[in-house]
Structures are given as C-alpha cells and as structure tokens.
Design a protein that fits this description.
185 residues; mainly alpha; 2 domains; three-stranded antiparallel beta sheet; elongated
C-alpha cells in the first residue's frame, strides 16, 4: 500500500469511537503535557504549539466533538501548567490572547480535517457509483430521497414518504400503459 493510499484510507475511514476515542483523547493530552514538563526552559507561547500535532492526530482519529474537547483541554492545561503562575487560568491579557489564537488554530485544524474527510467520502461515493452502472441511483439520507447519476451531482427528490408514493403512482401508470399497448385480450 502506498503512502497516499494509506493517508486516504485513514482520512476517509470512520473515526475511532467509544472507549477508544476517549483513550486517544487522553493520550492526545497526556503525551504533550509530559513532553512540556520535561523542558522547563521554553520561550513564552511555545507551550501551546506543542499540542498542535496531537490535536491534529486526534482530529484524524476521533470524531470532531472529541477532538474539540482535546483542543479545549490542551488550552486549559497549557495555561494552567506552563504559562504564568501554575494552576491559575487566564491571569493576564497575554494568556487570553494565547488561548484565543490557539483556539482559532485548533478550530481550523479540526475543521480542515473534517472537510477533507467529508470531501473524500463524497468523491469515493461518486467514484463507486460510476463503477457500478450507468443508470439512476436512488438513496436515502435522514428521511430524504436522493437521485444521482454517474459523473453528476446528487438531486434531492423530497421526503421519503412523498417520493415513495410518487414512485408507486409512476409504476401503476407504466403498468396501465403496458396493458393498453397490448390491446384487448
């Protein structure tokens, strides 16, 4: 498997969930905190950047809500343990600025990975439908019926109940047309 295929599968695959997601989230906070605690001579503001790759890894492996919790935990841990007096949160305007800028960066990281994952799934779905057959493909998502064609965008047909009723009516019309075309028996 090539590196590109591995990364594609990692981004498109469903994220880790349940207990494993909690474990990944805890590791995403513990590992950078341990790294930071080993080096006490950090320049001001460097502590938040240590958490960035771990938040990115969490965004790849776990759902966005869990990786957002890791990001908020990282901001709190960095401020409480490594900026200003220990165990005090947001004691200076500089801490506020660091927290806001870190939060914005974490949100961009998580949002970008979520967008790439969603786009990848959509492309994979489209590629899979092109490989299948050349006809119309009907699907159902959240109670809404959709129609798609290979190489084209999906079209929302409407609520499931209404579309099912319209399709039944259409099939009845086809049956009637066939009987009329055959003539009297």
């Amino acid at each position: 498997m090539t590196r590109g295929a591995f990364l594609t599968n990692l981004l498109i695959a469903p994220p880790v969930s349940g207990v494993w997601a909690v474990m990944v989230g805890i590791l995403g906070l513990v590992v950078p905190t341990v790294i930071l605690s080993l080096n006490h001579a950090l320049p001001a503001g460097a502590c938040c950047t240590t958490y960035f790759p771990f938040v990115m890894l969490c965004a790849i492996l776990v759902p966005p809500l869990c990786s957002s919790a890791v990001a908020l935990g990282a901001i709190g841990l960095a401020d409480a343990l490594f900026m200003g007096p220990r165990y005090q949160l947001f004691e200076s305007p500089m801490d506020d600025f660091a927290a806001i800028s870190s939060f914005a960066t974490f949100a961009l990281i998580i949002g970008l990975i979520y967008w790439v994952r969603k786009l990848g799934r959509e492309r994979l779905r489209l590629a899979h439908s092109v490989e299948m057959e050349s006809g119309v493909i009907f699907s159902l998502e959240r109670g809404q019926a959709w129609a798609s064609w290979p190489g084209a965008a999906r079209v929302r047909l409407g609520p499931q109940d209404e579309v099912a009723e319209m399709m039944e009516d259409y099939l009845a019309q086809l049956e009637l047309a066939e009987r009329l075309a055959r003539g009297p028996a």
